[in-house]
Amino acid sequence: MKKLFSVLIFSILISVSYAQNPVFTHVFTADPSPHVWPNDDRLWVYTSHDEPGSNNHYGMTGYHAFSTTDLVNWTDHGRILHLENVDWAESHAWAMDAAFYRDKYYIIYCMKEAGIGLFRTGIARSDVPEGPFTDLGYVKGVEFGQDPALFIDDDGTPYLFWGHDRKCFAAELNDDLMSIKPETYVELTSQLKYVFEGPWVHKHDGKYYLTYPGLTPRRWPEKMFYAVADQPLGPYEFKGCFIDDFEGQSGTNHGGVVTYKGKDIMFYHSAWLSGGLSESRCVMADYLHYDKDGNIIPIVPSKEGLGNAKRTRTTLLLEAENGFAAGGELYNVFVDTWIKGYSGKGYVTNFDNPYDHVSILAQVAKPAKYRFIVRYASPDGEYIPDILINSFQYRDFVFPQSDTFREIDFGLVDLKAGDNLVRIFRRNWKPSEGELAIDYIKLVQVFEDEE
To answer: Which of 28, 133, 243, 253 has the most crowded Cβ, counting Cβ within 10 A?
Structure first.
């Protein structure tokens, strides 16, 4: 009873305190992979996704991408890859990483192979950082490829790190990223005291830092440790723990380091958003500092986090044209590019018949109100669609005539915990309505004190 009371009090404190940790408060996320891409002023964070109320990690099925320019206002680009988009896999969409390599964007992830149940390291590619990503298959030569990290060195050489159940491995990848070079394969386990899983490599002052979750010994929850080397594949010198036990932590931890606008940031995860449920995690971030000898100064997780605003806010920006790849559907409509000024890769049009529709997936952690915005064009005149959000049908939304793309704010709507399908469709066939083009929808996070 005392433990339950403590969890409830902790949950209340987290919900009423304004702070920048957790970073994303609208959705359960874990295993953050932070990156800055060439010629892009945004910070990107790629995450795994915890299903609300699943009470286990076996229901994890997909990944999300987030971006920001100020560390306060974030964009959730929605689901970028899902188990149903990977033909060779059957379950366990666990930790992942991302990379920019030869002018393409990649995510590297782990799932269990269908019919075998063995973890494989999958790889997927996109032309744009927000995805969605197309699966290319799994990396050959990686046995039990859990918790992969893809490190591209300054000279363009790709390296793969992976680890599971007190072991850690590494190898150089071939140029196509689809297999390792067997002669470079190394096991790093003996060099990484307490290692359990989740390796991540970053570079600082010419040194290679390998951070990882570990147990001391096999005592949960995980702490974060690190080791340092002169070469990507080691040998590594163990340095110590830099994130120790903290209140509200998850049983696991996992994360990575990025330099953004001249400051080093450590992204990791906790159970703060759920009030202590280890299977419903959330991304955290704190600045990372080194001492004069290059040692990482331990991080004490704080509600203030990156500390440049009283709280973060996330907007879900969901491109209509992504369809099935992002969890939605295009039914008797198609993607076009004739009307200029669209975002992403195009817009959805051809709503010619009753119930032609586009549906878009929005995933959230808890029931809440969101501001509902649609970017559209309707060159031939006013257009009156039906909009269905889960089982609630809105019949009073109107798209005024517009030759160009514009946003229209329809006010507040209710989303439930988990998957929300937003469907825009033609209720009746009215030839005079002409062409309708749907570019994207936005769902803007609204806090209780703003309703």
So the answer is: 28
Last residue of a domain, one of 279, 311, 343: 311
Domain boundaries, position 362: 318-450
- pTM, two decimal places: 0.94
In this structure, are 298 and 386 located in the same domain? no
Q: Which of 30, 71, 66 is nearest to 262 (CA)?
A: 71
Instruction: Give the sign of the dihedral formed by CA 185, CA 146, CA 103, CA 30.
Output: negative
Checking 134-139 for CB contacts under 8 A at 24+ apart, the result is 134/85, 134/325, 135/81, 135/85, 135/86, 135/87, 135/88, 136/178, 137/88, 137/178, 138/88, 138/113, 139/108, 139/173, 139/177, 139/178, 139/179, 139/180
User: Which residues of the chain have a pLDDT value below 70?
Assistant: 1-18, 427-433
- Beta 73-82 vs 313-319: how paired, if at all? parallel
CA distance 60 to 82: 9
Beta strand residue intervals within 300-425, DSSP E:
313-319, 329-331, 334-336, 347-349, 357-364, 368-378, 386-389, 392-394, 402-415, 418-425
Per-residue model confidence (pLDDT) at position 430:
58
pLDDT, residue 426, reads: 79
